[in-house]
Request: fold
Amino acid sequence: MSSLETYTSVNWEGEKLKQAVQKAVSATVTESALKLQKKIHQKLSKKDNSGGMNPAKSGSPPAMITGALRNSWNVDLSRIRSENPTAVVSSNLRYAAILEYGSQKFGRITPKSKKFLTIPLNEDAVRMRRRNKDLRQVDGLFILPLAGQRVKGGKRKGKRFKGKRGRDTLILAMDLGNGKIRAMFALVKSVYINKHPYIRPSLESVEKKINKKMGKLVAAAIKFELGGL
Reply:
């Protein structure tokens, strides 16, 4: 009884394979990062022409007023050709994360150096705040006394404005002359920001495509390098 023996020689070029896979990964990471940035930009492109007087509903992406948040999202590809290809999609604005997760994670928003936060009550107030860094320098603008507060002459007078919780709210008003005034800003010591997720939904929308394409590209690179076997 005779037997037949067969020998096969394999030339394994590990370094070449590694380079091919790394190239495929770098290309996929770059494309995915740019897609994520584009998706975030799209989420933040719904305009709010009221100047912030009609804010987005809780749970929906924040509306665009100036475009600063949208334009702050950039892609850093400085480490894309490293051993571990990395792309960073980020914003340098602190409120980018606050809007995503809300005050529940970061706590209530309080003024840094002032006693109150100024919340505009109309579109004219929004424009006024943009034009003036210090509202104390605006002629005709004054704090409207609340009911029961003492004013000049020792008399107690004023109007009562109720906040959401029924508490008195200080009002920064404009003197229009002829005995007329207009409420311009609410003065509050802190505010609560609701969640307006736009980062995580953007990531979820491209995540499946990223994983699927990554697998295909790596498999193609391996097939290409081992195709002669």
Residues 14-103+193-226 form one domain.
